[in-house]
Amino acid sequence: MHTLLVRLHRWFGLFMAVFLFIAGLTGAIISWDRELDEWLNPQLFKAQSGTVAADLQQAPLDLARRIEASDPRIVVTSLPLSIEPGHTLNLGVRPRVDARTGLAVEPGFNQMSIDPVSGAVQGRRQWGAVSLARENLLPFLYKLHYSMHIPDGFGLELGMLLMGVVGIVWVLDCFIALWISFPSAANWRKSFVFRWRQGGHKLNFDLHRSGSVWVWSLLLLLAITSVSMNLGDEIVRPLVNSISPLTRSVFDERSPTPRDRPIAAWQTREQILAAARAEAARRGWNAPAGTIYYFGNYGIYGVGFFEPGHEHADGSLGNPWLYFDSTSGQLVSANVPGAGSAGDLFIDLQFPLHSGRILGLPGRILISALGLVVAMVSVTGVVIWARKRKARQRSTARSLDPMSTA
Fold it and tell me: Are 76 and 68 in contact (CB under 8 A)?
């Protein structure tokens, strides 16, 4: 049994090594994506007008209207409703549907940075582009982390599916690795030791085995949450729903239109925001509307509620959202993290746990360090395999060489 598990661990590890090495390093970096992005690209985040009084800034809704009027190719889809002092307004955009063809033509960018005083466009970029240019580096690493930038095909997000499969193998291998790390009850302490002074292959082995044992539960947590986020609709949600029924959302009830055929909104952002604020007040929510998002392929507006600067909901399960039909303006769904069934709570936990944001800054530091551990375990595992393979080849060569036994 032990021999079989060792072989499974070896082949599982070799299959995952490259993917987990990349995911570990990128995960350590993107824990600080906003901070690093702002440092690399001040033109996208620092307003040229500098820090001015709030009454000198244009309202985000007004700026969005101006941008749409100045560029007929685009529609603003993601709009923050507050602007941090001295910073730009960062908009998400999608192509506008051509009235003649009924199709949307990509403008070559999906994010814009706007000076809140002058309304000038300070920068544009295509989030997720395969590019190592400074303005694209952090989005490139973020998408690399969960999809390896593998193109979609056959109507499937192949990169996410692959990384989901890697996550499943990782979950299984976590238990296999724990089992083979303690082959003897009498020598269990060895699995927690690092032979720093001896160095070489002994230290490499300890870094791989003991390094994993010390943080085993956290590595398992990362593995499980990676499966949840990459294979949520395919595996995790159906499985959880069979145990504890999940609250269905509007996105479960509607089928999206093709990417190049988004649904035009009949309701304006102002109309939706008025309805959202009234509904939030009825529910007793104290946080203001922090962002409005239009899901064009579903015909749905989403309004998120949070205090300025808390869009990531650090230290919590997430921010509450209200969803409205873009044609009728009617409320169609609400998402309040932490409410609902035990299954809903499990789903709500996945991203806050995977990102560490549930613990705020300490959680982000922890996840960043764990990313480096994942990369280290991947490298040391390959080194162990390569060394043993080389030893086996030498042994085979000696057994076939008659002079070696002379």
Answer: yes
Question: What residue numbers bound the domain in which 281 lies?
Answer: 248-339
HSE (side-chain half, CA atoms, 13 Å) at 58: 19
- 143 and 37 within one domain: yes
Report CA-CA distances (Å) from 155 to 149, 158, 260: 16, 9, 14
Q: Give CA–CA dist 72/405, Å, rounded.
A: 82
* Model confidence pLDDT, tens digit, residues 300-351: 999 999 999 899 889 999 999 999 999 999 999 999 999 999 999 999 999 9
DSSP state of 121: E
Question: How many domains is the chain partitioned into structurally?
Answer: 3
292 close to 323: Cβ distance less than 8 angstroms: no
Strand partners, 93: 76
Contact assessment for residue 250 and residue 333, using Cβ atoms and an 8 Å cutoff: yes
Give whole-number Cα distances, 101 to 17, 31, 104, 297, 371, in Å.
Answer: 47, 42, 8, 17, 47
Q: Is residue 295 within 8 Å of residue 302, measured between CB atoms? A: yes
The torsion angles phi and psi of 262, rounded to 5 degrees, stand at -65, 155
H or E segment to which residue 66 belongs? helix 60-70
CB 111 within 8 A of CB 124: yes
The answer on 238 and 146 residing in a single domain is yes
Please write down the HEC assignment for all residues of 329-346.
CCEEEEECCCCCCHHHHH
